[in-house]
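hi! just following up on the protien thing from before. the input was this:
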Amino acid sequence: MGAVLGSGGFRAQELSPKSSLCYLGMGCSVEGLLIQAVLRQLPPLPLKTRGWAFPDPGSAALMLEGGFHLLIAYRPPDPLLLLGGGALAGEPLTPLQRFLQARVRGRLLRIEQLALDRVIVLAFEGERGFLETPPLRLVAELTGRHANLLVLNAEDRILILDREVPQARNRFRQLLPGLPYQPPPPYRKLDPREVGLEDLGTLLGKPLAEAAQAHLDGLGKTLTLELARRAQLPPEHIVQEEDLPSLLLALRDLVRNPGNPAELRRRWQAGELQRRREARRRELEQQLRVVEARRGEALKAQERLEEARSLREEAELLLAYAHQIPRASFVELIGFDGLPRRISLDPARSVPEQAEALFARAKRLEASALRAQAQLQELEAQAQALRGQIEALEQASWAELDEPPRPSKAPKIPGLQFRSPGGHAIWVGRNARENDQLTRMARSDDLWFHVQGLPGSHVILRREGRNPDLPDLLHAARLAAYYSQARGERNVPVDYALKKNLRHPHKAAPGEVFYTAAKTLFVDALPPEEV
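and the predicted 3d structure came back as:
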């Protein structure tokens, strides 16, 4: 059990690890005064750190001496800063989290908040020893939909960050690895910790909540509404001269204690619970659309049984009158029901060949209808179950919404699997069928390798969101050379191209492709253990 320390004198409350994680997701953007109040709860600095924990891909918890943790939820749109008691768990899930665990270490020397903005900077001492780590700074920009987490070196250059911001997205400042860090643009607002009665004159003649958020630093939507409540004024109230004394008292009280944790928690949790319900609803409705589409296709397949019967009858008529039918584009025959029947023909093919083609087509339609009949009952049950889940969402609890989705069965990868020096997966087909399957399973940005001008395996180097280095490319090229008719030769040319530049010709045999925009590597066709 962990004690959660809230902002500005929040009473410690016992939370289970599960409810503590729910608290991280509560949907209210953190505000400057709340950040300041959380930082006031920290023990005196510097503090020894005990490593990191990562409850999810968008949050990082710094373990501190004395049994505390400072948790930063840094993903948009609802970041959060939380000082808690007890330990959290979780292995790193992203490159940034792996960097924090390995490199952002040593004593926490200081934490600075930029004015009352939603930006904090944590300075780490680094560590000396066998694996030395230099002093680094961690910047948490808890700015709503622009939230981010960045690591800076001693020269304030960005080493790694959660979300890159190129110039195309923000022409005022870029956030990219290697660039100097630029904080958010400065602004001019009143510091609520220092304002006097005369300073509040800027609010006169304006709606209270709107004016307070525009002119008072550290107050967002939630705290401006709380300010109005404490001043006993409606949020839309037009501020008058006589309102200023009560507003000043309410503001000073808000600075000392930004809010009641239980009340804020209920408010945040209600909003987040509704958001989770809506997200689950969209997920279930998408699944229902897929099931309904599959059910519609199955019904259409069943309806084509009549077409299959008609095709069989045409085939039988052609065979029955084969000796009388000339080569033409169509023929009119008397059907088995005594009625005339017009049948399209291909003059380039014999009548028995055309009858055989009709029988084959009818057989495919019948097999499809039988499969559809077997699937219909299951699809109808799935659709009914999904509709029930959608109807039950309004009463769904945190526990039900927190249940992890059932893992889908990953498709079995045919052929051989290897790993490149840089950790990329490599697939190697062993025959034409596997070559065709692997090429179809590859993503558009994966790399395809094949020995130049000789039969051989299709080799796929998975990009997996990372650019492979030259050793990775050479490894895949050697495998393509070895699993080909060039095995054992030296200086073998191997072409490689992006999978999106491959094309499977119409009616071509499995594994046959055309490719463009290829490059060539020259490698020795060595066996895998020597690669």
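Confidence is low (pLDDT under 50) at residues 1-28, 404-410.
The CA atoms of residues 1 and 478 lie 54 Å apart.
cheers
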